């Protein structure tokens, strides 16, 4: 399985609303239920007026488009990291899954995944700049 590191630091937070948040920016994820509105985004894009906030997350994604019939991909990753004592915050999109770990655990997470057969792809320097640019 190929994994790609997403550059930068992320924030996971609870917000009252999505006003003032540029939902068109890369790596901005929202989730709304009857109980809360959540936001995951690059830390430099996180609003100051969050209801609750956790900074200090890093992310990687599974490379490629995952068919809905595939079973156990996220379970393999989460089990591997759980065995190493590393918690995750997972986000699924239509095409693939994104996995966040606390920044302090990130390098250890990548080593554990490599030891379990995953290939880790670091982004090119220009991709990191492009992902964090203000458009």
Architecture overview:
The chain has 135 residues and is α+β, with helices and mostly antiparallel strands. It has one domain (2-119): VC0802-like (2-Layer Sandwich), CATH 3.30.2130.10. The protein is built from 3 helices and 7 strands; from the N terminus they run ββββαββαβα. It has helices spanning 73-83, 103-115, 125-132, and strands spanning 2-15, 29-32, 37-42, 52-62, 89-92, 97-102, 119-121. Strands 1, 2, 3, 4, 5, 6 and 7 form a 7-stranded mixed β-sheet that branches. A hairpin with a 4-residue loop joins strand 2 and strand 3 (37-42). The longest helix is centred in the C-terminal third of the chain and has 13 residues, at 103-115. The protein is globular, with a radius of gyration of 15 Å.
List keywords for this structure.
135 residues; alpha+beta; VC0802-like; seven-stranded mixed beta sheet; 3 helices; 7 strands; 24% helix
Oligomeric composition of the shown chains: single chain
Query: How many E strands?
Result: 7
**CATH fold field value:** VC0802-like
Head-to-tail CA distance between termini: 32 Å
- Enumerate how many helices there are, as a single number: 3
Q: Helicity, in percent?
A: 10-25%
The biggest sheet, with number of strands, parallel, antiparallel or mixed sense and barrel status, is: 7 strands, mixed
User: What share of residues are in beta strands?
Assistant: 35-45%
Top-tier CATH class: Alpha Beta
Unreliable segments of 5+ consecutive residues = 126-135
Structural class: alpha+beta
Q: Write the element-wise H/E pattern from the N-terminal end onward.
A: EEEEHEEHEH
Q: Quick one: CATH superfamily?
A: VC0802-like
Instruction: Indicate the radius of gyration in whole angstroms.
Output: 15 Å
CATH 2nd-level architecture: 2-Layer Sandwich
Q: What is the typical, i.e. mean, pLDDT?
A: 87
Number of domains: 1
Mass-distribution shape: globular
